[in-house]
Specification:
By secondary structure, this protein is of the alpha+beta class. It is built from one helix and twelve strands; from the N terminus they run αββββββββββββ. Strands 7-8-9-10-11-1-2-3-4-5-6-12 form a twelve-stranded mixed sheet, with helices on one face. β7 (127-134) and β8 (137-144) form a beta hairpin. The relative contact order is 0.17.
């Protein structure tokens, strides 16, 4: 009789533990789904077909700092920084170096367009997501799945009301990059802003690298 009671108690403990683990798993799955949903909302605000503009401040482990304004719309983009500026109309990619007074023309799909681009490669489906609330913000943590190259970890702070990203911290290789986002505006009404202003840089040396 005593052994039967002990076995029954152990069975009850095991069942209770299984139910507890099942509840934890369900909560984790719900958290993951919510994190991905909100991340997608913020991601689409920036990279959706309507386009956007924003100001950014980048700090890579205090070794490199820059700031500027960027416009996105589909495959088109433009950014202005103190030294470098870029215009991409979807067909050609123009990079201006104000210090060297040069204009490089590249294929927008060329790997030579940006030597750092591959290191910051990002595909949303390659990550596990988790969300937590802090004040008026939401913090979404991304961890790369096994074997994923490029960004390994990221932490995105999003405004809970507007879903606009406020800051992004990403880990690539062994270093962290911090990006602060301000002055976000949804939508780009005039696509002409992505056209390179040839007259403005007519005195610069032009380097056509589209066939490289």
């Amino acid at each position: 009789m005593t052994q039967t009671i002990i076995k029954s108690r152990w069975a009850a403990v095991i069942i209770a533990l299984m139910l507890c683990l099942s509840n934890v798993s369900a909560q984790e799955n719900a958290n993951t789904r919510q994190a991905r949903k909100i991340f997608d909302q913020a991601y689409n605000l920036v990279f959706g077909p309507q386009g956007c503009s924003l100001k950014y401040d980048v700090n890579i482990v205090s070794l490199y700092k820059t700031s500027g304004t960027i416009w996105y719309k589909g495959k088109k983009q433009k950014f202005i920084e103190p030294r470098y500026s870029v215009w991409c109309d979807g067909k050609d990619f123009y990079r201006v170096d104000k210090k060297k007074k040069t204009v490089e023309i590249l294929d927008p799909n060329s790997p030579n367009r940006d030597k750092y681009a591959s290191k910051f490669k990002f595909e949303p489906n390659n990550y596990n997501y988790h969300i937590a609330a802090k004040g008026s913000d939401l913090i979404i943590t991304l961890d790369a799945k096994k074997g994923v190259d490029g960004v390994k970890h990221a932490k995105v702070i999003i405004d809970n009301k507007t879903r606009v990203p406020k800051s992004i911290k990403v880990k690539v290789l062994f270093f962290w990059a911090n990006i602060k986002v301000t002055d976000f505006h949804k939508g780009v009404a005039d696509d002409n802003i992505f056209n390179f202003p040839h007259k403005q840089y007519s005195t610069y040396k032009t380097l056509d690298k589209r066939n490289e």
